[in-house]
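Lab manual, section 2.4: Encoding a predicted structure.

Procedure: take the sequence of the chain (233 residues), apply the prediction step described in section 2.3, and record the output as structure tokens. A sample record is shown.
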Amino acid sequence: MAANGHIGKPDIVTVKEWQKAREELQAAEKEATRLLDTVAARRRRLPMAPFDSSYTFQSHEGAKTLLDLFGGRNELIVYQFMDNGPENYCPGCTWYTNNIPEHAPQMLADKGITYVTSSNMRLAQIEAYWKKLGWTIPYVSSHGTSFARDIGAGGGFMLTFFLRDGDDVYRTYNTTSRGYEKLAFVTGLLDMSAYGRREDWEDSPDGWPQGPTYLMPTSMEPGQVSTGFGTFR
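Recorded output:
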């Protein structure tokens, strides 16, 4: 926002000038897309490593092992939601989970992939937060296990991908911080909007509305939100 308190606006140009600028940006976007295609090809060629499946997770259906979480499917995605202690919740994890489409777990299941959120929060705390926010994403508690540490999340958050061969479980991929922010629907649309995410780490013209990005670790009071993981840029 400008010093005078007014919000800046993009320059006004002719339709022809706008089209030319858009085409120039589109060329850069296509170049970035091709680079991401190359990275994705490398990701599909990653090896996999054995992973212990004997952890005991708590769910509203009772105790479950990591193998149980597959639900009979061949692939499993586990999002490790930060545990910030009683009554405090990670804003980045909350933002990300808020952005998961209602039908996404079933759409993944149709591809043979099960999606589950895990957290070191106790099961009752997870249940209460899910109910408060109206989430229907499957969840389990990893409280009392070393699962978060073993996947590399520690006290933070992590998205981990597993593949099973019979009863043998393997880890194929994981990512954290800005590695999965593109999965957040609203964050992606904000990136395409005139003002972006409105966060102060972004390279934006003078006068664009901007505010601070939440730091990590952090606690979130009810009603606060985060738009991504800019602090990890």
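Check your result against the sample. The two ends are 22 Å apart (CA to CA).
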